[in-house]
Design brief:
17 strands, seven-stranded mixed sheet, Quinone Oxidoreductase, Chain A, domain 1, alpha/beta, six-stranded parallel sheet, 333 residues, Rossmann fold
Length: 333
Amino acid sequence: MKAAVFHGVRDVRFEEVDKPGLSEGEALLRVKACGICGSDLHTYREGLFLGLGLPTETGRILGHEFSGEIAEINGHIEGVNVGDRFTTAAMGANAEYLKITAETARFLVPIADGVSFVEAATTEPLATSLHATNLANVQDGETIVIMGAGIIGLGILQCIRAGSSAKTIVVDLSNKRLALALELGADKTINALECDVQETILGASDQRLALVEAPEGVANTVFDCVGATRNFTGVSVLEQALSIVKPDGKVVVVAVFEKPLEIDPNIIVRKGIRLFGSWAWTREEFVQALALISSGKIDRRPLISHEFPLEDASEAYETQANADTAIKVMLIP
């Protein structure tokens, strides 16, 4: 079968690999769409998280945000038939086919009629956004700051809009992403290249947002969807989040850090900040994320910025690495 194989930093190759064999109780999924995740990018750009992906003779097949249809079944799997459309989470979906083990089969989620394979392939990142939103327990009337308008940050915005009337401020470096945030219902956006984010939000500059002027913070919750790259210098987004949040507020970190940061923990103590780390999702949240897409309460189509055939995987990864132009890049095997 055809696959996009990761060989090393910025080296993804389109090549032929062995089609997976099936044991009793396993199925073969014909992959119809697979998104390139932020964790895939960390591997592609920096060689991090090398344990991710499906090993091959020459490298690893990345990809875990996908959808497809059942092509083969060895034996019987309750509720699963050839031709059925499913999404789930497993490694190695940058390929024509993906083995669904007996364990993975228990977590297959059917795709409703009317939901495209490309939309369904965004279920996994939406579930990640939903998990972070649930940790914050956002309430009507609160002020929420989302730092980072990639697929996770925009997903958090969508989850908030679907479940509350909280005020939302979205911060990013890309005007394209910020424009999309406004389309998706953000109340305010800030380009961090054009102003001091802390001063602007806290009302300490002429560009203040006229929300709540409070030097101790204005946001009930701040989501850090940025983290820090290996070459990052300056004031980290996490430091900014701790400054912006109100006393007794929440900071939810749903990002990956390529290097350790130095922060002053005294601000956490003095303000009584509740700091949450948000990783992945629960099975229930995954199902709920797809239900939000299926019901139309959340529209994921505007977030899909590019689609590439599998043979152009190298270009697809380079495109996803350009945050100014790409939001979610999809591979279509």
